[in-house]
Write a structure and sequence with these properties.
It is built from eight helices and eight strands; from the N terminus they run ββββββββαααααααα. By secondary structure, the chain is α+β, with helices and mostly antiparallel strands.
């Protein structure tokens, strides 16, 4: 079972959702790139999941519960004390980042209540760190949106008033990726959104900015390790 909820107040518009997942069976869950950074509390404690560049299989047991706070692409800033590229393709215990999240009096076996306990502690820790650190790069949403429209890196840099070197530096710090990889990730997410809405693959390819359906299929396989049809399911 997986559910998402709006983040609520206090996050300065930098968090896209809070979420909860409880595994109903032993198995492997596939995490695919979305440009986001998550603070997660799972069976082994609290950790940060950095921005991924490829598929991340996660082994779970029946009853394993995970609670998360998902930052928008480019929204994490200095919350965890390191630039986003230092977290790329990593799962880092919060203790290694000097980030404290207290379990308080929460204890309900492996099951996590969305409204209290761990989520409340995580929320309080994130809000406190947001107040104590510099804001995220204000240009990050514009960078992601310009790359999503299919413009070249040079065109995006020129439009936003950056040199390509400046765009690379800001993209790495904000998203954990250079602009070319970021473009692949946001395009992939757009394609996945359309496919799950029932749009035919050939139209998904055109609308998402792929050269053709074969290009779409190859990119989906490279970023997720499975086919678009499997992701839709």
């Amino acid at each position: 079972m997986y559910e998402e909820r709006p983040p609520g107040d206090g996050f300065d518009g930098r968090v896209t959702c809070v979420w909860r997942q409880v595994s109903d069976a032993d198995g492997t869950r596939l995490v695919v790139p979305d440009g986001c950074v998550d603070l997660i509390w799972g069976p082994s404690g609290a950790f940060v999941a950095g921005p991924d560049t490829g598929p991340m299989p996660v082994r779970v047991r029946a009853g394993d519960a995970f609670t998360g706070i998902r930052f928008k692409p480019g929204g994490v800033g200095d919350v965890f004390g390191v630039p986003a590229h230092a977290l790329r393709d990593q799962r880092v215990p919060v203790a290694d980042l000097g980030f404290s999240v207290s379990d308080g009096e929460f204890s309900v076996g492996r099951h996590v209540a969305m409204s209290g306990g761990r989520l409340a502690s995580m929320r309080a820790a994130v809000v406190a760190r947001l107040r104590a650190t510099a804001p995220a790069d204000a240009a990050a949403p514009a960078i992601a949106e310009a790359l999503r429209t299919g413009r070249t890196v040079g065109e995006v840099a020129w439009t936003l008033g950056f040199s390509e070197r400046q765009l690379l530096r800001r993209s790495l710090a904000s998203f954990g990726y250079g602009p070319k990889v970021l473009q692949r990730v946001v395009r992939f997410q757009r394609a996945l959104q359309l496919a799950r809405a029932g749009v035919a693959p050939v139209e998904v390819a055109v609308v998402s900015g792929y050269a053709d359906q074969a290009h779409l299929a190859n990119e989906v396989k490279r970023l997720s390790g499975v086919t678009l049809a499997e992701l839709r399911r």
